[in-house]
Amino acid sequence: MKKNKLYRTARYLLLGFAAVYMFLLCYPQVLFAHHVTYKNFTVYSREPLDQKIYAVLDKVEATLAKSQINDPQVKPRIFLTNSQRLYSVLSLYIGANSFGKGMPVLANSNVFINAADVSKDLVFRQSAEYNSRSLSGVVSHEITHLLVREKFGYVRNLTMPAWKKEGYAEYVAGGPTLDYATGVQRWKANPGNDAGYQYFKYYSLVKYLLDTEKLSVEDLFNTDFDRSALEAKVLNSLQ
């Protein structure tokens, strides 16, 4: 009887914790004391927001406007955690070694951002190299994931190849974290293992299809490609 009671208690506690956690993922604004709404964006922060947030959002708006699937009806909620620990919890990304995380798998428009300096338009991550990136670029990348979900639907978004989704998000954002020369060098040195240059490769594949092959965004996502042949072609084109 004692074991059964302990088991039931543990199960209820676990279910309760899971329910609270899911609530926070869907409605994290309860953890943030400050927010501003500007154009299509709402930004939440635990500290008063720097006035330069408006300039950052203007950059995001201009960046997204270049996307063929931009949709002003998508109204992102951007959460500036300013804490790598809180970011890890809310982004499901233990280690906080990413800059931002959108949640297209959930029925909301939440975007979580790692520690950031709004005044300098920068966001940071825990990494030995390439540990900062423009805040406006990261926000644009994550919102692009929401736009892809809005355009193609939840189910399609879940089953699409990662190289298309991540490559297009990097393309819209203006390029990957890794600089061009380093990306090319790493890819050519080790084409069989993309650890250390994965997003650069994804970006390069998408950029080639959109800029060189002149595909539309819909063609990009709706066409089945021979990925091995595509990778070989793109790698051969890089100087």
**Poorly predicted ranges:** none
> How would you describe the shape?
globular
> Could you tell me the radius of gyration in angstroms?
20 Å
**Annotation field: number of helices:** 10
The CATH architecture of the largest domain is 3-Layer(aba) Sandwich
Determine the mean pLDDT.
93
The overall number of domains is: 2
> What is the succession of H and E elements?
HEEHEHEEEEEHHHHHHH
Sheet with most strands: strand arrangement: 1-2-3-5-4
Quantity of strands, as a count? 8
Q: Indicate the CATH topology of the largest domain.
A: Glutaredoxin
Report the sheet with the most strands, covering strand number, pairing sense and barrel closure. Answer: 5 strands, mixed
- Structural class comes to alpha/beta
Strand fraction equals 5-15%
